[in-house]
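User: Sirohydrochlorin cobaltochelatase. Structure?
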Amino acid sequence: MTTSPALLIAGHGTRDEGGADALRALVRLLAERHPEVPVAGGFFGVPDSPLPLTDAVDGLVGRGADRLAVIPLLTAPTGPVPEALPAVLARASERHPGLTHVCGAELGPHPKLLDVLERRLDQALGSGARKPADRARTTVLLVGHGTTDPYANAEVARAARLLWEGRGFAGVETAFVSQAAPDVPAGLDRCRALAATAGPGGPGRIVVLPYFLLPGGPVERLHMQAEGWAAAHPGTDVFGATVIGPEPEVADVIMERYRAAVAGEPPLGSAPCACRAAAEDARQAHGAAWQGASLTAGAGER
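Assistant: Predicted structure:
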């Protein structure tokens, strides 16, 4: 009998315990929903992670796995990193002779992830998101990590366009936490300018939406930047949404990527472990601490 390849979820480096806990929760969810597939997860790209990818590989090998299907837990390609995923996997194969792997595509912007993002927007706005008129006066700032790779940054712009299509928001702008422009304050300036050009009755509020799967340091920087901008612009209502998190939709997309990798379907870009999202996703459908709280100065406790 042929056993299924083990599923290895590869998150991009974090030292944040909250991010590690979220990945553990996602691994548990997948294990419960797909008991036939051994699954583990960890982080690559930074030292001193609380959940190293190498430990996840060792654990799967200890459970008898000799084949891995590696799915990068990313919404977009990372761009250049000090310790890239192929290098980590190559060292794992050296430590475990006979271990083979195939690398699938990253997750976004998949229609199911866009649905979760829409839910995060509704949660941030609370009761003020229920009617078409409410959405029509809402501008969204979708914030990605940011990288020196223009392709990776373009994936965030693609997600913004897909999130805007058919959902009734006044607009979806993009920004990045680091390494790419516009940064979060500049992105908020653009959203505010959009509201100003619309005139009376136009877009009157902004939702800052992290395009991140897990919490961590970059998300905290995003929060601080958004809160600082809101304090300096008390006349603009700014709301904060939470990260995507370990949701069932994320598990579904991971399994879709897993099955494609096992079936030998190459990621877009065709290079080994290229980690490019499948273009078909965009055509199939378009359609925490500060969650739901106004960031306008004087808004009170969050």
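Residues 17-33 form the longest helix (17 residues). Residues 268-302 have pLDDT under 50 and may be disordered.
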